[in-house]
From TrEMBL:
Pfam families: Nol11_C, NOL11_N
Record-annotated Nucleolar protein 11 C-terminal domain positions: 361-670
High-level lineage: Eukaryota, Metazoa, Chordata, Craniata, Vertebrata
A cellular component term, taken from the record's GO annotations: nucleolus
Any one of the GO BP annotations: maturation of SSU-rRNA
A single GO molecular function term of this UniProt record: RNA binding
Domain Nucleolar protein 11 N-terminal: 1-289
Keyword annotations: Activator, Nucleus, rRNA processing, Transcription, Transcription regulation
Superkingdom of this protein's organism: Eukaryota
Name under which the protein is recorded: NOL11 protein
Length: 672
């Protein structure tokens, strides 16, 4: 999430549907999914094909899978039956009891009480709501009926367990949160014979913000004294304002609130002191820290909340950055207001005054000259590092790229390069920067971004690769790029073809190669790996692409669109690097940020996967593929020979450990 980069993607077959959320089993580090209600799938991160993953068809439909850090995975079936995953996998077709009579499950949650997992779920039947508390390992089940609150009805539930008591919180349609306490019974004969118990509830919160009723859509528990509610506030004559609120349940006060102008999906998740919510078109992560609940703090927060200000309870920086960019791009005044509020809070907390907020700074730089831009940005970058500084600089860079798009003649090249080189930015902080650099053909800036940004989308990586391969060598000679990654091994003059080596380098020599292959390769093509197929500048740029992080699943479709001649040129360069690496005992190229053997091999395999059919059909690729095949086969043979003496080498290593360091001896080892 910090790099905003996809790490994996798995798909079910056409016609199949994932029917419950996928979870991660904390104990085995495996993913668990259910498709088409009854088909269980289990796989690991390194598994690429979901169709080849473990599959088990169950006898009943699954409602939800819950994973607990120390309690394993629990499977809840639509009929109310519960099984631990281990028990279920022992006999996937085992009969699952049906506990529900025309009841539909509305919510479920899993918790740990001591060493025992506890599953709680609520059901609805004819507008009546029921609560089930189950301990699967103890085969214990208790059913309760929830007291009605006509005409209001429950919208969502959440719960936590403290001191053998389940606290169930219910968000109702009358803009209120109710609390239900359920003791965790020890199973006795009396308990088993007891009739269905009706649970009474008590009003915990009346959701009112500055006199307006908050219509909640999602509720999560933060700790024993705090809850978060996602909802909307009425705005007369306008669309309701969505907002995230945090409440102190002990003193029934609003702790803090934040408007969400880009809109949400109505869902809110909470995990390890982070909120997860859809804000606009992105998944937003917001950190928070629960403060010790006290009356003074609660009253203080209530005073702030009346003006819809924000306390230090939550780090809202992520949201403010998003709002600022959207507002600035649409040239609304909301940005200045939002950032002014942020600046006022900052001034109150640090005692500073007279400094520009981000919104004010952006408005000042909107049409400023290059001199003013440079002066203001140098002031900004000279500031002592703060948590907000990186985000502020990211906003400024985004504002500059917006100006570049509006005015193609404006492009502060040196300023942008200096910012990227001196600040640990990321693609997500300034998402349009590389697109503008591609438009301006700023190869130096693209090289810096590829080397420094950890979260570049595969589409942009491909666009850079295509641009680098398409630019002529003559043009590149006049371009100033960093050559450190290539200058130590790329042959600048490649005309001398009389050099020949008699040394067997990592298992490859021309004689060995000819022995292994009946096909005679023309003399002029036997040395494709010896001369660099691209110039020094282009090699340095391509090395930056090789260093860029990517996910194979997302890059492969783009590589399939690479023009055939560019694909062949890129493969020739990768083959050249591969041969150069193999000349060294440690398979490491000299230089700063030179490609590693793993990067070279990964890109070579990826390119061949994407372009193999095209290359097989092209006559000009035939010799290249043949040479590459021979070289790899020679390497495989060499390492196969090494494997044969692996046992003897290990024995030698063992004897070296056993030998006393002060004793001189001569030993003869016979390798059979």
């Amino acid at each position: 999430i910090s790099d905003q980069k996809p790490l994996g993607c798995w798909s079910v077959k056409h016609g199949q549907i994932l029917t419950c959320p996928v979870v991660c089993n904390f104990e085995t580090h495996e993913y668990i999914a259910v498709h088409d209600d009854k088909v269980l799938r289990i796989w690991k991160n390194e598994d690429l094909n979901l169709d080849k993953a473990f599959k088990a068809t169950l006898s009943a439909e699954v409602y939800r899978i819950h994973s607990l850090p120390q309690g394993g995975a629990l499977v809840l079936f639509r009929g109310g039956g519960v099984r631990t995953l281990d028990v279920l996998l022992e006999a996937p077709q085992q009969e699952i009891e049906s506990l529900l009579s025309a009841e539909a499950i509305r919510w479920s949650g899993a918790f740990m009480e001591g060493q025992e997992p506890v599953l709680i779920f609520t059901t609805e039947k004819n507008k009546d709501f029921f609560v089930y508390v189950q301990k699967p390992k103890l085969n214990s089940l208790h059913k309760y009926k929830l007291e009605q609150q006509k005409p209001a009805r429950p919208l969502c539930f959440t719960a936590h367990i403290t001191n053998q008591t389940v606290t169930l919180l219910c968000l109702y349609s009358n803009n209120s949160v109710y609390q239900v306490l359920i003791p965790l019974h020890q199973d006795t004969e009396e308990e088993k014979e007891k009739e269905e118990e009706i649970l009474s509830k008590s009003l915990l919160l009346k959701l009112s913000v500055s006199g307006a009723a908050l219509k909640g859509t999602s509720l999560v528990v933060l700790d024993k004294d705090h809850v978060a509610v996602l909802g909307s506030l009425p705005d007369p004559g306008k669309k309701p304002k969505e907002c995230l609120t945090i409440w102190n349940t002990k003193f029934q006060t609003l702790q803090t609130s934040k408007e969400l102008p880009l809109g949400t999906s109505g869902q809110l998740w909470c995990y390890e002191e982070k909120f997860f919510l859809i804000h606009g078109k992105v998944l937003t992560v917001i950190m928070y820290k629960c403060e010790t609940s006290s009356l003074a703090a609660a009253v203080g927060k209530l005073k702030d909340s009346q003006t819809l200000d924000v306390s230090s309870f939550v780090n809202w920086n992520t949201l403010e950055d998003e709002e600022l960019l959207v507002s600035f791009q649409s040239q609304e005044s909301v940005a200045l207001k939002a950032e002014s509020r942020m600046n006022l809070r900052s001034n109150r907390s640090t005692g500073q005054s007279g400094t520009l907020s981000v919104g004010q700074l952006l408005l000042r730089l909107k049409d400023a000259s290059n001199y003013v831009l440079e002066t203001e940005l140098k002031k900004l970058m000279a500031k002592a590092p703060t948590p907000d500084l990186q985000a502020t600089i990211g906003c400024v860079v985004t504002a500059l790229t917006d100006r570049c798009k509006r005015n193609p003649k404006f492009y502060p090249q040196n300023l942008l390069q200096e910012i990227v080189e001196t600040r640990d930015l990321s693609y997500s902080l300034c998402p349009d920067l590389m697109a503008v650099a591609l438009e301006q053909k700023d190869l130096q800036l693209l090289q810096i971004c590829l080397e420094r940004f950890p979260d570049i989308p595969e589409e942009i990586t491909y666009a850079c690769l295509k641009a680098f391969l398409s630019i002529s060598e003559d043009h590149l000679k006049s371009v100033d790029v960093n050559l450190d990654s290539a200058i130590c091994y790329v042959d600048i003059e490649c005309n001398d073809m009389e050099v020949k080596t008699e040394i067997l380098e990592n298992g490859f020599s021309e004689e060995m190669d000819q022995d292994m292959c009946d096909t005679k390769i023309p003399k002029e093509n036997q040395r494709d790996g010896e001369s660099c197929p691209v110039g020094l500048q282009k090699a340095a740029l391509l090395n930056a692409v090789l260093h860029s992080a990517y996910t194979e699943t997302f890059l492969l479709p783009h590589l399939k669109n690479l023009p055939a001649q560019q694909a062949i040129l890129f493969l020739r360069y990768l083959y050249y690097l591969y041969v150069k690496c193999s000349e060294k005992v440690n398979t490491t190229l000299p230089g700063i940020r030179s490609p590693t053997i793993n990067q070279i091999m990964d890109w070579m395999c990826l390119l061949l996967d994407a372009q193999f059919t095209v290359m097989v059909m092209l006559p000009e690729a035939k010799d290249l593929l043949s040479n590459l095949h021979k070289f790899v086969r020679a390497q495989v043979r060499f390492y196969s020979e090494l494997n044969k003496i692996e046992g003897s080498l290990r024995e030698l290593q063992r004897l070296n450990h056993l030998r006393e360091s002060q004793t001189y001896s001569i030993e003869v080892l016979e390798i059979i």
